[in-house]
Input
Amino acid sequence: MHYISTRGAAPALEFEATMLTGLARDGGLYVPERVPAMTEAAIAALAGQPYEEVAFRVMRPFIGGAFTDDEFRTLISSAYADFGHAARAPLKQLSSGHFLLELFHGPTLAFKDFAMQLIGQLFQASLKRSDERVTIIGATSGDTGSAAIEAFRGLDNVDVFILFPHGRVSEVQRRQMTTPADRNVHALAVEGDFDICQALVKDMFNDFAFRDRVGLAGVNSINWARVLAQVVYYFTAAVALGAPHRSVAFTVPTGNFGDIFAGHIARAMGLPIAKLVIATNQNDILHRCLTTGVYQTEAVLPSISPSMDIQVSSNFERALFEAYGRDGRAVAQLMDELRSTGRFAVSQGAIEALRETYASGRVSEAETAAIITRTYRKTGELLCPHSAVGVGVAEAHLGTIPMVTLATAHPAKFPDAVEAATGIRPGLPARMADMFDRPERLTRLANDRAALQALILQRTGLEADA
Ligand SMILES: *Cc1c(COP(=O)(O)O)cnc(C)c1O
Output
């Protein structure tokens, strides 16, 4: 099983190298050379299986010889052992034909845990075997960082540096990043927004001397192993609703496009997904792009669903690669244009391909709050603002096919917005109730790559080798 870059100019890699490297050396993202198909019988046989077993069967063809079957099963089972729900990703009915897939029962209460907990296990197993060290570096709008820190804290062969936009993450998100006491955890509050954090990380990956010196590894949603882990719950949800004999639609609260791209992979494997709907908040670059054919960045507007407050949606590059018939050169050109002008126009053929694969919708701030209020009144369900954006867009796409909206975070992660809309302040699950009493540890940082690199060298003890 080989992985190729969306920009066509980096070497093809096996699963393990793809996972450890994150971003391809030509600046592109890795995608499988061919998506393995699952037969109808194999999909039907997933019915009633535990989440971990479905995870094994769905992911196994993608990992090649990286791990033995026994090893892989053990890693999967450790990854999900700390989840607060036996089903891992339980499905709840909201109304006739509309279901909520709860992806927030992991240790940091957002869907990012599904991928990050697994990647933590896979990295550890792989690094132990090779006796190597890596420096994990990631940018976060809130949830990725806390999930990464939770997955990698205390591991021997790893330092983890997380950049987050200072003052723009919720208090729970910040505390999840700043309260772990492990010495290998470094929470960095950057002056700027998420896109600035993401650009700093990308630039460091493109500085090959630095990248090799510190053994840089990326666990942002561009990491293929993360996308892969997210494919699994599309299967558990669809099979619970009757796949492969019945089609299912999904609506996905979208930012960096990792989660919804996993849905595309599930469909490419043979899961009958009738519709994949991109749901955006007021930072609606993806919805505008699908509607107008022009991908045009604007300033990020802070919203009550901050994990979707982005303009450059990294994994969208993977969708463009598919839409352009896997023409890496065309994608590289678009990305150059984006870098120099802040926009690009999608070709007629490619926009048609994108519209065949994805539908889209947008929800304003006021609508998001109204959806939280309305859903609580009608169903008793407290939605986090991201999930509310999904529910709002899904309601506009309901039809005869069952619709599953991905609930991407626990309401207690965004208690202010939920309380403002419902009058109820959602409480943290008991296992994390002491978070507000623990001391915080963070480093403030300007938008300055040289200073950041110096800090990383110093904290990893590598500056002496200069
Ligand atoms: C990360 C995140 C999203 C967006 O997911 P992408 O894979 O980046 O599109 C949506 N909701 C929540 C709560 C998140 O943490």
Summary: Residues 110, 112, 143, 221, 253-259, 307-308, 386, 408-409 surround pyridoxal-5'-phosphate (CB under 6 Å). The CA atoms of residues 140 and 310 lie 10 Å apart.
